[in-house]
Amino acid sequence: MSTTHSLEKPLTLEPAGNFLPALGFPDLGKAAVHLKRIGVGIVFPLFLLYLWQVATERVWLPPQLLPAPAFVWETLLDMLGSGELATHLLASLQRVAWSILIGGSIGLAIGFAMGLSKTAKAYLYPSFSLFSQFPVIAWSPLMIIFFGIDEALKISTITVAVIVPFAVATYKGIENVPVKLMEVGRIYQFSFTQTLWRIALPAALPAVLGGVRQGCMQAWLALVFVELLASSEGLGYLLVYARNLMQLDVVMVCMATIGLVGLLFDFALAFVEHRFSNWAPKGR
Amino acid sequence: MATFKDKLPSIDPRGFVLPALLLLVWQGITAAGWVDTRIIVAPSAVLAAGWNWINSGLALESIGASLFRDASGFTLGAAAGITIGLLLGTSKLANTFFGPTFHTLKHISIFAWIPLLSAFFGRDDLAKIVFIAFATLYPVALATIEGVRAIAASQLEVAKVYGFTPRQALFRLILPAASPQIISGLHLGLIFAWLATMGAEFLLASTGEGLGMTVIRGRAAFRVDLIIFGMLIIGAFGMLLNELATRAESRLLHWRGHAR
């Protein structure tokens, strides 16, 4: 159904649509519409910025609670210049990378095992679905006891967060591989490795990539949580540290960085997912 | 998602092998004294600690306090989420003005808000409830937007032909038509709210009671038995809420039947 914009007609508060062509202006195509949309979209943030500026000038809130925009900007430049932000960001990204590597491998293995073998599914699935219902957050105190508050804690916690989406997506992807494709493999008497590499993996790839995206977002979420909980470096640590010193300018810079990295992750992975979404054989 | 009833007939005994093995090994190594029993506590000790905790009456108080926060935050967040979702979904003007800001802010990892919220609202119930509301808001709002945008053009035309006022359109068309997505958004919001409740209680551990705070204090006091029991309770409540939401979802959407 292509009814995405259908609702606007009877309910809009303004004349709907792009009326530029109707007035005889040259139609610049989609670029103009996009530019216009971005132009309008930036109005509200600018208004917020203005409000923020006014609020700090007239001291509606104590400056400790609401630092001036210019001050936050200076802090950002400072932290960029001194390399402080980069150091902490790198520490955080390293943790995420390790966890995705470890958790991703475990998740893929569990997903493939459950998807390809009925026996493995019978043994693993009930335990796995129970495990997947326990939030990572609930694990963290136990992990602190086992692993202390060092690197092992962060990596293990984020790893647990990554395993579930990877495994679920892989399992679903393989389960949804068209039966016809598997039958063709059986007729050609494919060995297990051949079935895996030539049929199951390519056909399940889009779903697996969806899981990768989910897993990365979960990893980023868990990273911030675990760094807030116990850490000596990383963006989350910087957040807590700055908050305890009531340096809300640093807090805001950290939040913006966390948001930006999340955004970049999402865009990059959505791009990859989109690129590969249409290549899977449909088996029809 | 399969309901409990669907799962019942097809219980495969092989599913119990792994958990049973784990329990056996766990009890075995602690009973044999191969490990430091302060770090790896025997399953029986976990049960004993849990029993004492429940009998002392503290458990009820903690769970009650957590559920109260969860419910308050969820209610606020769900109301705000549906309102924002309806606004951004129905009004093109609102969407062009607020949409980009809304969709950019959602990329800030939810827990990153906690330090800022704690600066504004302190470390007590208020900060926690605001945070839980915040965590609920996004999934509900996003689902509502999706639901409103998926309404068929033909249905909107009927509303137009009948000369529906905006109020009539909202209550007779938009809300009923978007209800499947809104309800699944609320379901997701409920799960997020419980997560956020635990997260807030861990990160903003203050005086007062709460399931998460009991667990995090158990960590400080090195009460591994209490931590594990608390974890089980947290997980159990998460599953219970999920199960309730699943049932409510199918019951609330029952009226839709085979309309199409």
Can you walk me through this structure?
- The complex is a heterodimer of chains A (284) and B (260).
- With 284 residues, chain A is an all-alpha fold.
- Chain A has 2 domains: 25-60; 78-277, Orthogonal Bundle (MetI-like fold), CATH 1.10.3720.10.
- Chain A has helices at residues 8-11, 30-41, 43-57, 69-82, 84-116, 118-133, 136-147, 151-175, 179-187, 192-229, 235-244, 248-277.
- Chain B is mainly alpha-helical and 260 residues long.
- Chain B has one domain (43-255): MetI-like fold, CATH 1.10.3720.10.
- In chain B, helix 4 (58-90) packs parallel to helix 7 and helix 4 (58-90) crosses helix 10 (211-220).
- The interface between A and B is large, with 69 and 68 residues.
In short, what is this structure?
In chain A, 77% of the residues lie in helices and 0% in strands.
Estimate what percentage of residues of chain B fall within beta strands: under 5%
- The low-confidence parts of chain B are none
Radius of gyration of chain A, rounded?
A: 25 Å
Terminal Cα span of chain A: 22 Å
* Morphology call of chain A: globular
Identify the biggest protein-protein contact and residues per side: A-B, 69 and 68 residues
What CATH calls the topology of chain B is: MetI-like fold
SSE string of chain A: HHHHHHHHHHHH
End-to-end Cα distance of chain B, whole Å, is 22 Å
